[in-house]
Amino acid sequence: xxxxxxxxxxxxxxxxxxxxxxxxxxxxxxxxxxxxxxxxxxxxxxxxxxxxxxxxxxxxxxxxxxxxxxxxxxxxxxxxxxxxxxxxxxxxxxxxxxxxxxxxxxxxxxxxxxxxxxxxxxxxxxxxxxxxxxxxxxxxxxxxxxxxxxxxxxxxxxxxxxxxxxxxxxxxxxxxxxxxxxxxxxxxxxxxxxxxxxxxxxxxxxxxxxxxxxxxxxxxxxxxxxxxxxxxxxxxxxxxxxxxxxxxxxxxxxxxxxxxxxxxxxxxxxxxxxxxxxxxxxxxxxxxxxxxxxxxxxxxxxxxxxxxxxxxxxxxxxxxxxxxxxxxxxxxxxxxxxxxxxxxxxxxxxxxxxxxxxxxxxxxxxxxxxxxxxxxxxxxxxxxxxxxxxxxxxxxxxxxxxxxxxxxxxxxxxxxxxxxxxxxxxxxxxxxxxxxxxxxxxxxxxxxxxxxxxxxxxx
Amino acid sequence: xxxxxxxxxxxxxxxxxxxxxxxxxxxxxxxxxxxxxxxxxxxxxxxxxxxxxxxxxxxxxxxxxxxxxxxxxxxxxxxxxxxxxxxxxxxxxxxxxxxxxxxxxxxxxxxxxxxxxxx
Lengths: 459, 119
Fold this sequence. Notes:
The structure holds two protein chains of two kinds. Chain A is of the alpha+beta class.
């Protein structure tokens, strides 16, 4: 058994670049060390959208790009003995496994062993009303919401069980993101479930890799200040983990992007709260003692990750269908654009209010102040900088019904005739809102199940 | 050079980098000086109060700073900064990922000699 294990990542969210995997797999194969590859495809609300898809079609509800993601690399990974793990099962892991099986058979791999981990979907088995609410969500009023999905963030153990049963592809729904990296390490090194020190190294590996290119130049890139090579072809990350708990991060060979102290620090702290207690279902990671060093071009070594006993309870995120979002935009440009934009915004807000269409409304002046502004427009109302040449006015409302949201967003259209001089370029749309709330659930309420069989046997 | 001992006021963006992340209605903002020599100076000037003030207009209620001196980094947690976050915000940026650059717009006073060549 090798003392070094490689973990590659080829997706940081559902919607990531579809051609990330081949350079990662080529690098893993060239290195010739034992390795695994994982895909992270589930943001907080992705699973609710997948659940809605599944209601429409019982064979849908998993990552829609699954076949495209796996097709270029499945045969190479099978040949090289590189297992693939992913939460691409979303709301329907069994249907995702059937999709992988069809692909494997088409590629002449009928013996490929496909494993499925289920049990994360607790919408029918756990009474959410009886559970404590996760602290960050305590203030939300959910009385008018309809439950769409409820999934527990399950840990690495069932994924590692699937690997132990010979799975070459492991399909999961909701797992904690770092668990996708911890599982192959547990399996390869035989780390027990209470080896907090090593599991914390695995959690650090997973945390650094789970957002894909965010470790290797994505999100990092700031032209003229933090430049990266070939941003159109950023290489996805690879970690080298040692039996002794050493950890080094790098990226696919012959690609763009970079791995340096700056990019690794940014990702290490990404979405982190208390650096002494990063909670995963497998271990509590503590990075307060971490040091890092550039160990070569695009190679950063980390030391000093500490681990503490895993939390007693698992996090469950429930998704609800709530209200409707209506949005509309129009543009003004040229002399006196700022005054015309402010007047347009005020009239839109007044129209929505006097027609009683929205629970909440907001206007942005894109080109003056938008993403950093507040619902009451504190920044664009007080703006006293130079006259912007081109401003887009955006109205956004939260409405109780689809029709109210539609009526409100169409107020921008009416401004083409009723608005200020030179108002143009109306666009409007309505989208259902998915709202989420997190709870804490005792582990024993979330039993998991592992099913592994060959591609020819999945129908 | 005597000139280089003078202090100049610059946006944090000239001397440091940051990344924003969200959890519910909270935003986390990392902050790292490019030159570790500036770490104590940022610790003194980029206070919880000043960072909270950047998000007051959005209803932020609390800011906590965690220091990671071994890697010359800070982690700021700002509560109630996202007007509901992905859950409820009407803002185009429900995830709040753009807020690293609100932080980087804050000004600090640094020795002129510590400034990197302008980007």
